[in-house]
Amino acid sequence: MTCSRNRVFPCIVAALLVSAGAPAIAGERAQGTPSAQDLYVSAQRLFDRGNFAEALVGFRHAHNASGSPNARIMIGNCLVALGRTAEAYEEMAATLREAGKRAETEPKYAPTRDAAAKHLALLESKVGKLVVEVADPAGVEVTVNGSRVPPEKLGVPFAVDPGTVVVAATRADGHAVRREQTVEAGASERVSLMFPETGPKKVEATAPVRVEGAKPPGSDELRTGGAVRTAGFVVAGIGVAGMAVFGVTGLMARSRFATLEEECHAARCTDLKYADVVDSGMALTTAANTGLAIGAAGIVGGGLMILLGGPPFGRPSARSVPLGTNFVSPESPVVGAGFTVSPGGAGVHCTVVF
Asked: pTM of the predicted model, to two decimals?
């Protein structure tokens, strides 16, 4: 600063003011933010007096300012004194990692490392371990008993206080899922969280493939029907067999009676020599009538079972056949049976057309 001869006095006054104010400014700067050492000493005093909650805050400030493992192990000691065992375990584990790494180049942290290891051994049986897994953790906030779980702790075990813990996860779109899990001291539990599907799945339409000669689904069932229809063919077969018995025995009985008619000249035969012929003729007549009854019942019953005992014959509906499939529908089967009796003989016939 330059002063002219006429302004010498004002300049001297200004210089005196600046020189008087400089020590005050320097003192104000010196009395600004306390050092990490001061924060640590102040927190230690509070801890020694039993003010653990206030000491916890002070040690946290000291650790933030210095990053010293010595401040962090005191954070763990405060948490132990306050009964916050799970948090104390995590702080001691972090202290062990930090002090162990720094002790490799700074031996003064070796005692801190060893002390943290001893504290962890004592706390191990007093806490439970929990592993929280989230199917898609991106953008998901997870809490345990209301406390946020850092993303780096997902999928790895961390300490929790024994008892029932409430694990909740909230997605960015507002969807949430919640689970409760009981964790015992010294035990480890795992909780997997999965968000339910929030919308319908997209179904892509595919064009049917045309396969030459392929049968439509259910075509075999349409041809054969169910168990009742299968049984119907068996019953109808028995009926045909009954009609065959009727035909054979009827022809034999007619032969016997024809012999009597020829030898007795259409009169009642009283000669005992014809008793066997009469008896055999009557037995054959009974067998023929029985065969007729069984045959008629089997054919009628079996036919009804075939016609009504399964899915309808013919072309299946369009709903049951994929579009584009070539097939030839079965024709409706025709089942028929009959018998004839005439003076010239007796006969039976059965017809099944598919």
From this structure: 0.47
pLDDT tens, 27-82? 433 455 789 899 999 999 999 999 999 999 999 999 999 999 999 999 999 999 99
Is residue 8 one of the residues assigned to a domain?
no
Q: What is the pLDDT of residues 260-287, one digit of tens each?
A: 666 675 566 666 556 666 677 777 788 7
Q: Looking at the structure, do residues 284 and 166 belong to the same domain, yes or no?
A: no
DSSP 150: P
Q: Is 165 helix (H, G, I), strand (E, B) or coil?
A: strand
Residue 229: what pLDDT?
75
Rounded CA separation 329/220 (Å): 10
In a domain, 333, yes or no: yes
With tokens 């028929």, the residue in question is: 336
Measured CA to CA, the distance from residue 333 to residue 178 in angstroms comes to 63
* Same domain as 334, residue 233: yes
Q: Which pLDDT value is given to residue 19?
A: 42
Which residue, of 125, 158, 189, is where some domain finishes? 125
**Total domains present in the chain:** 3
SS3 annotation, 119-139: HHHHHHHHCEEEEEEECCCCC
| Helix (H) or strand (E) segment spanning residue 144 | strand 140-144
Q: Evaluate whether 237 touches 245 at the Cβ level (below 8 Å).
A: no
Regarding whether 341 and 223 lie in a shared domain, the answer is yes
Quickly list DSSP for 323-354: TT----PPPPPEEEEEEEEETTEEEEEEEEE-
Same-domain pairing of 157 and 121: no
Q: How many residues appear in the chain?
A: 354
* Strand ranges across the sheet with 158-160: 158-160, 128-134, 188-193
Q: List Cβ neighbours of 272 (8 Å cut-off, separation of 6 or more).
A: none
Q: Is the CB of residue 318 less than 8 Å from the CB of residue 325?
A: no
Indicate if the pLDDT at residue 151 is higher than 60: yes
